Amino acid sequence: ALGLVTLLSFASRFHRLPEPPHVCWDETHFGKMGSYYINRTFFFDVHPPLGKMLIGLAGYLSGYDGTFPFQKPGDRYEQHNYMGMRGFCAFLGSCLVPFAYLTVLELSKSLPAALLTAFILIFDTGCITLSQYILLDPILMFFLMGAVLSMVKCNSCADRPFSASWWLWLSLTGVNLAGAMGVKFVGLFVVLLVGLNTIYDLWDLLGNLSLSLVIKTIGPGDGFFSSAFQSQLIGNNLHNVSIPEHLAYGSVVTMKNLRMAGGYLHSHWHLYPEGVGARQQQVTAYLHKDLNNLWIIKKHDSDIDLLDSSSPVEFVRHGDIIRLEHKETSRNLHSHQHEAPLTRKHFQVTGYGINGTGDSNDFWRIEVVGRRAGKLIKVLRSKIRLTHVATGCILGSSGKTLPKWGWEQVEVTCTPYVKETPNSLWNFEDHINPKLPNISLDVLKPSFVEILLESHMVMIRGNSGLKPKDNEVTSKPWHWPINYQGLRFSGVNETDYRVYLLGNPVVWWLNLFTIGLYLLIAISTAVVLKRGVQLTSEHKGELSRVVLCGGGQVALGWLLHYLPFFMMGRVLYFHHYFPAMLFSSMLTGKYWISLCCQTVSLLPSSGGSHVWWLGFYLFHPLSYGMIGPMASDPSSPMAGLRWMDSWEF
């Protein structure tokens, strides 16, 4: 039976795998990131690195050279070898079926329940689609299901602790948990599931009086990171560089906000649009290295060229009043009491003046955190704030993303609320002044732990701030269990080769019905037992086995992988539900066979399996691709299958 379901799983996932021979949906991101690893290029992404590293490894081992640009969906692969990466993801996606089969078999000791679970996943069009492309989802779900299977197997060895099999499954549980967390942060949910299982086991052991209580001892993302972090990146302009140590008038500098992924102080020729404060030059925070990040430090009351070799060096000191002139546009950093674009009650920050000549609203007092007046300012190491002399507000990065007119860069404001946060603190990073001696940046070298913590904090902050792109189909968590709306993987009109991510409706709606029925019976059982209703020991044992032991673990897994999304502020998509869908499918297989094992029509060996096959047969073009009229066209062969108006295939 295991061989049969494994064969069917691999056959369904590898069928027509090369098609379409162009970039589909998020392959543009994760294929590109695999290329970055092959080319040893540093980049920033909101997810941990393991999934992209494995994609890059699969591409490298299969002969892909990392030169395809993955610019946008629809770009043809031509001569580039993409099959190694797709094949790797399809292989891991194919393993989900035997993993789920073995998990349910271990929990229920029922071959029909395990087979039913396997057939549900084999014939689910959504799982097939998600497994056939260069994505993180099949990698994440492989480790997730591997962790659940290992946990269940380890539980089965509870009567022989510290045996070879116990150590094997315990170790595999840890490996798979690490793998899940290393692919996406939502891997934390399965860590929580295993943690709760462990707490339950420990509580159970506490009641075993035969045991002693004696404890046994057994590139493109550089700008997202701090200056010290960047100094460790080979190829970064701060790596092994020597720059002047103390800030002086006439120096050309860049200023980096100390907020995680806060960006560089930036300006460009574009003006704020009508109705957004004063129509002056935009000032933003930009997350990448750019010539428009360069500013010249000048005295507030003098335009003398301080880089002239005949003029003496004059250092900037804590408490000085300065001007910052944008090098590319020769306009001064400026603020006034017009409201900021996005943050209410903050003041707008602009670029103002002509060739460095502006007005008194261009004056800023530079202050170093924790220093006394008159002290010199150190590049990279001094945390500084700029206080606007005329209004008393403090320059900061709000962290909010500007609309299209602001090139989706980060809003810079001047806050009248004097509160010391990373948003209002800066450091000088690049420092160019030919009149000053240089020092090495080795003194900035961070420890491995500091690098690790910063990289994860930046990923978490970037993940939580994700926003949808134009015309992108997003969804809400309540949409997912009802299969309300799918995702276009490829193609938008009738002449395109279209792939559409949508679950097999027969499978998904039965899963939803099962979850509701299970929760109803679980609550009813709890009430019956609480009310002291007399049950035979046989009935109590059956209820405990069906509702609590196996079913409870699986239902808890579904809850942990679904409910947290209701509390997330980031943009959400349909594919986020698929880890939870694995648990709902296992619950369906285990629950129906446990309660209805005498109902022949539900057994996989009977005609009931034809239900899954029928749903798969009707909807399989969504997974394997289709060309022709859209389903909204009455002449389309798919028209009769558009059971919900929200389905857009």
From TrEMBL:
<dbReference type="InterPro" id="IPR003342">
    <property type="entry name" value="ArnT-like_N"/>
</dbReference>
<dbReference type="InterPro" id="IPR027005">
    <property type="entry name" value="PMT-like"/>
</dbReference>
<keyword id="KW-1133">Transmembrane helix</keyword>
<keyword id="KW-0808">Transferase</keyword>
<feature type="domain" description="MIR">
    <location>
        <begin position="313"/>
        <end position="369"/>
    </location>
</feature>
<dbReference type="InterPro" id="IPR016093">
    <property type="entry name" value="MIR_motif"/>
</dbReference>
<dbReference type="Pfam" id="PF02366">
    <property type="entry name" value="PMT"/>
</dbReference>
<keyword id="KW-0328">Glycosyltransferase</keyword>
<keyword id="KW-0812">Transmembrane</keyword>
<feature type="transmembrane region" description="Helical">
    <location>
        <begin position="550"/>
        <end position="573"/>
    </location>
</feature>
<dbReference type="Pfam" id="PF16192">
    <property type="entry name" value="PMT_4TMC"/>
</dbReference>
<feature type="transmembrane region" description="Helical">
    <location>
        <begin position="611"/>
        <end position="632"/>
    </location>
</feature>
<feature type="transmembrane region" description="Helical">
    <location>
        <begin position="167"/>
        <end position="196"/>
    </location>
</feature>
<dbReference type="Pfam" id="PF02815">
    <property type="entry name" value="MIR"/>
</dbReference>
<comment type="similarity">
    <text>Belongs to the glycosyltransferase 39 family.</text>
</comment>
<feature type="transmembrane region" description="Helical">
    <location>
        <begin position="506"/>
        <end position="529"/>
    </location>
</feature>
<feature type="transmembrane region" description="Helical">
    <location>
        <begin position="111"/>
        <end position="133"/>
    </location>
</feature>
<keyword id="KW-0677">Repeat</keyword>
<keyword id="KW-0472">Membrane</keyword>
<feature type="domain" description="MIR">
    <location>
        <begin position="374"/>
        <end position="431"/>
    </location>
</feature>
<keyword id="KW-0256">Endoplasmic reticulum</keyword>
<protein>
    <recommendedName>
        <fullName>Protein O-mannosyl-transferase 2</fullName>
        <ecNumber>2.4.1.109</ecNumber>
    </recommendedName>
</protein>
<feature type="domain" description="MIR">
    <location>
        <begin position="244"/>
        <end position="300"/>
    </location>
</feature>
<dbReference type="InterPro" id="IPR032421">
    <property type="entry name" value="PMT_4TMC"/>
</dbReference>
<feature type="transmembrane region" description="Helical">
    <location>
        <begin position="83"/>
        <end position="104"/>
    </location>
</feature>
<dbReference type="GO" id="GO:0004169">
    <property type="term" value="F:dolichyl-phosphate-mannose-protein mannosyltransferase activity"/>
</dbReference>
<comment type="pathway">
    <text>Protein modification; protein glycosylation.</text>
</comment>
<dbReference type="InterPro" id="IPR036300">
    <property type="entry name" value="MIR_dom_sf"/>
</dbReference>
<dbReference type="GO" id="GO:0005789">
    <property type="term" value="C:endoplasmic reticulum membrane"/>
</dbReference>
